[in-house]
């Protein structure tokens, strides 16, 4: 990567932006690009023959967006104004979790995927691709994942294109992948250091905790340690910050029996937190924010205080930076914004 593309950014501060947000009235122009140097445009879909296609033609190329056509069109305009900005296509929408194992297991289909991805990247003026196959469930799928990265690099050489992969932070999944070798193909590993607890969990818990109080729980720090001890250089790891909270009804904190969820599918967007009539608290040991009461019960999330601590951790460990999932759910005012807080903390001396 040339120095001009990394102007003013010692660390990566990346944001996922999902094309479906167009239907909520969100547009790329609403983000603050002084604090963002990479956008993951989500999601493109993959077909069983290895073809890569835009996930929503209308949202991507035709919806009125910031005075141009399509959210992707808007990003291309923004990219011209902010020379440091990289726009990377995230591939992994729809039922791709079922399709990736098929495509990755065949040399012919891997080649189709790589050629198709390159065509789409070139036609759209994008900087590269992000492979969102977070759960290679078996060692065989882990080997196929590596073969897929190798095939993609033939068509998207590292001197011209960005290649990243978004992976689960859960040890049993990471153990299936040769992480050291994968890192040789990748610019960054985007580590999903959130969703440790949710509607699927038997107990309530902090869904994006940096540290854990018990050995049987997942945490961001443990996942980072697992990656680095497997040979992934710290500078190639981006730690994930969720811009949403997970809700557990009828409990006052972590460690209780899961008795149901509030919000939409158990989640509230960060810009709707803390919930009305509740007080925001920070668990400094776990590094997690929470509010209790109202319509959400116990809601666990990140706030500016926890993001400062996570950004400081990222710097201390020599990580490449942070990413946020997803941009439009962040708070609009900069004091409350997780993206702005993360950027400022990463780049403070």
Automatic annotation (TrEMBL):
SUPFAM superfamilies: (Trans)glycosidases (SSF51445), Chitinase insertion domain (SSF54556). PANTHER family: CHITINASE (PTHR11177:SF228). One of its GO terms (molecular function) is endochitinase activity. It comes from Dichotomopilus funicola. Belongs to the glycosyl hydrolase 18 family. Chitinase class V subfamily. This is chitinase. One of its GO terms (biological process) is chitin catabolic process. Residues 11-349 form the GH18 domain. Its EC number is 3.2.1.14. PROSITE patterns: GH18_2. GO terms for cellular component: extracellular region.
């Amino acid at each position: 990567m040339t120095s001009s593309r990394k102007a003013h950014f010692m660390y990566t501060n990346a944001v996922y932006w999902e094309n479906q947000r167009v239907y909520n009235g969100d547009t790329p122009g609403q983000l603050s690009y002084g604090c963002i140097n990479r956008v993951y445009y989500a999601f493109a879909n993959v077909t069983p023959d290895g073809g890569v296609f835009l996930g929503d033609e209308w949202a991507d190329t035709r919806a009125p967006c910031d005075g141009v056509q399509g959210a992707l069109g808007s990003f291309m305009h923004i990219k011209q104004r902010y020379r440091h900005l990289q726009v990377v296509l995230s591939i992994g929408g729809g039922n791709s979790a079922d399709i990736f194992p098929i495509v990755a297991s065949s040399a012919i289909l891997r080649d189709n995927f790589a050629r198709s991805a390159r065509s789409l990247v070139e036609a759209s003026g994008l900087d590269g691709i992000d492979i969102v196959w977070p759960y290679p469930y078996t060692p065989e799928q882990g080997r196929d994942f590596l073969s897929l990265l190798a095939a993609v690099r033939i068509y998207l050489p590292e001197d011209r294109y960005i290649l990243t992969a978004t992976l689960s932070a859960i040890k049993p999944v990471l153990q299936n992948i040769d992480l050291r070798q994968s890192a040789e193909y990748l610019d960054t590993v985007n580590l999903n250091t959130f969703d440790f607890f949710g509607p699927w969990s038997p107990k309530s818990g902090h869904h994006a905790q940096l540290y854990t109080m018990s050995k049987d729980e997942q945490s961001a720090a443990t996942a980072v340690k697992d990656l680095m001890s497997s040979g992934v250089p710290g500078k190639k790891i981006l730690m994930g910050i969720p811009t949403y909270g997970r809700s557990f009804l009828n409990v006052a904190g972590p460690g209780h029996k899961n008795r149901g969820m509030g919000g939409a599918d158990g989640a509230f967007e960060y810009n709707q937190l803390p919930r009305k009539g509740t007080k925001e608290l920070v668990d400094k040991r776990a590094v997690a924010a929470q509010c209790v009461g109202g319509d959400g019960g116990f809601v666990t999330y990140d706030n500016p205080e926890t993001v400062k601590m996570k950004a400081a951790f990222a710097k201390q460990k020599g990580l490449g930076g942070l990413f946020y999932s997803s941009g439009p759910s962040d708070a609009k005012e900069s004091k409350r914004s997780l993206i702005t807080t993360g950027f400022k903390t990463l780049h403070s001396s």
